[in-house]
Description:
- There is one protein chain.
- This protein is mainly α.
- The chain has two domains: 1-33; 60-106.
- The protein has three helices and two strands, in the order αββαα.
- It has helices at 9-30, 60-80, 87-106, and strands at residues 44-45, 48-49.
- The protein has a two-stranded antiparallel sheet with strand order 1-2.
- α2 (60-80) runs antiparallel to α3.
- The longest helix is centred in the N-terminal third of the chain and has 22 residues, at 9-30.
- The protein is flat, with a radius of gyration of 27 Å.
- It starts with 8 loop residues before the first helix and ends with a helix.
Amino acid sequence: MDLNVLLSPPxxxxxxxxxxxxxxxxxxxxxxxxxxxxxxLEPYACGENFEAGKFSFGYRRFFIAxxxxxxxxxxxxxxxxxxxxxxxxxxxxxxxxxACVSILYSDVD
Length: 109
Protein backbone atom coordinates (compact mmCIF):
# COMPACT_ATOMS: atom_id res chain seq x y z
CA MET A 1 0.00 0.00 0.00
CA ASP A 2 1.32 3.43 -0.96
CA LEU A 3 1.21 5.76 2.07
CA ASN A 4 2.07 8.85 0.00
CA VAL A 5 -1.62 9.22 -0.87
CA LEU A 6 -2.23 10.15 2.79
CA LEU A 7 -0.04 13.23 2.33
CA SER A 8 -2.11 14.64 -0.52
CA PRO A 9 -3.99 17.77 0.59
CA PRO A 10 -7.58 16.48 0.12
CA UNK A 11 -6.94 13.24 1.99
CA UNK A 12 -4.98 14.97 4.76
CA UNK A 13 -7.80 17.52 5.11
CA UNK A 14 -10.44 14.78 5.41
CA UNK A 15 -8.35 12.93 7.99
CA UNK A 16 -7.85 16.13 10.03
CA UNK A 17 -11.57 16.98 9.85
CA UNK A 18 -12.52 13.45 10.92
CA UNK A 19 -10.10 13.62 13.84
CA UNK A 20 -11.40 17.05 14.89
CA UNK A 21 -15.00 15.83 14.71
CA UNK A 22 -14.12 12.76 16.81
CA UNK A 23 -12.49 14.97 19.48
CA UNK A 24 -15.51 17.30 19.42
CA UNK A 25 -17.90 14.36 19.82
CA UNK A 26 -15.82 12.91 22.66
CA UNK A 27 -15.93 16.26 24.48
CA UNK A 28 -19.69 16.48 23.94
CA UNK A 29 -20.15 13.06 25.52
CA UNK A 30 -17.98 13.94 28.53
CA UNK A 31 -19.37 17.43 29.12
CA UNK A 32 -22.50 18.22 31.15
CA UNK A 33 -25.79 18.84 29.39
CA UNK A 34 -26.46 22.56 28.84
CA UNK A 35 -29.08 24.15 31.03
CA UNK A 36 -31.27 27.03 29.97
CA UNK A 37 -31.27 30.08 32.25
CA UNK A 38 -33.74 32.93 31.72
CA UNK A 39 -31.32 35.88 31.77
CA UNK A 40 -28.46 34.29 29.88
CA LEU A 41 -29.18 35.95 26.55
CA GLU A 42 -30.18 39.35 27.96
CA PRO A 43 -27.90 42.35 27.37
CA TYR A 44 -25.90 43.30 30.45
CA ALA A 45 -23.03 45.73 30.95
CA CYS A 46 -21.37 47.38 33.95
CA GLY A 47 -23.84 45.99 36.44
CA GLU A 48 -26.89 47.43 34.68
CA ASN A 49 -29.52 45.93 32.46
CA PHE A 50 -30.22 48.02 29.39
CA GLU A 51 -32.31 47.98 26.27
CA ALA A 52 -30.38 46.62 23.36
CA GLY A 53 -30.19 48.98 20.40
CA LYS A 54 -29.07 48.28 16.91
CA PHE A 55 -25.45 49.21 16.39
CA SER A 56 -23.56 49.06 13.13
CA PHE A 57 -19.85 49.47 12.63
CA GLY A 58 -18.51 51.83 10.00
CA TYR A 59 -16.15 49.86 7.82
CA ARG A 60 -16.14 52.38 4.97
CA ARG A 61 -12.73 53.82 5.82
CA PHE A 62 -11.25 50.35 6.17
CA PHE A 63 -12.51 49.25 2.76
CA ILE A 64 -11.20 52.42 1.12
CA ALA A 65 -7.78 51.84 2.71
CA UNK A 66 -7.85 48.20 1.58
CA UNK A 67 -8.79 49.28 -1.94
CA UNK A 68 -5.98 51.86 -1.86
CA UNK A 69 -3.38 49.23 -0.96
CA UNK A 70 -4.71 46.82 -3.57
CA UNK A 71 -4.61 49.44 -6.31
CA UNK A 72 -1.14 50.57 -5.31
CA UNK A 73 0.19 47.00 -5.33
CA UNK A 74 -1.20 46.45 -8.82
CA UNK A 75 0.21 49.80 -9.95
CA UNK A 76 3.67 49.04 -8.57
CA UNK A 77 3.62 45.59 -10.18
CA UNK A 78 2.62 47.11 -13.51
CA UNK A 79 5.30 49.81 -13.35
CA UNK A 80 7.96 47.32 -12.22
CA UNK A 81 7.38 45.13 -15.26
CA UNK A 82 7.61 48.05 -17.71
CA UNK A 83 10.98 48.59 -19.31
CA UNK A 84 12.65 50.88 -21.78
CA UNK A 85 10.55 53.47 -23.63
CA UNK A 86 7.35 52.63 -21.75
CA UNK A 87 8.58 54.33 -18.56
CA UNK A 88 6.83 57.61 -19.43
CA UNK A 89 3.51 55.79 -19.86
CA UNK A 90 4.08 54.07 -16.50
CA UNK A 91 4.54 57.45 -14.79
CA UNK A 92 1.30 58.66 -16.42
CA UNK A 93 -0.39 55.52 -15.14
CA UNK A 94 0.78 56.30 -11.60
CA UNK A 95 -0.55 59.86 -11.90
CA UNK A 96 -3.99 58.53 -12.91
CA UNK A 97 -3.91 56.07 -9.99
CA UNK A 98 -2.99 58.90 -7.58
CA ALA A 99 -5.91 60.99 -8.87
CA CYS A 100 -8.34 58.09 -8.40
CA VAL A 101 -7.11 57.45 -4.86
CA SER A 102 -7.42 61.15 -3.97
CA ILE A 103 -11.04 61.09 -5.19
CA LEU A 104 -11.72 58.05 -2.99
CA TYR A 105 -10.33 59.73 0.09
CA SER A 106 -12.07 63.05 -0.51
CA ASP A 107 -15.50 61.35 -0.44
CA VAL A 108 -15.01 59.76 2.99
CA ASP A 109 -17.27 61.24 5.70
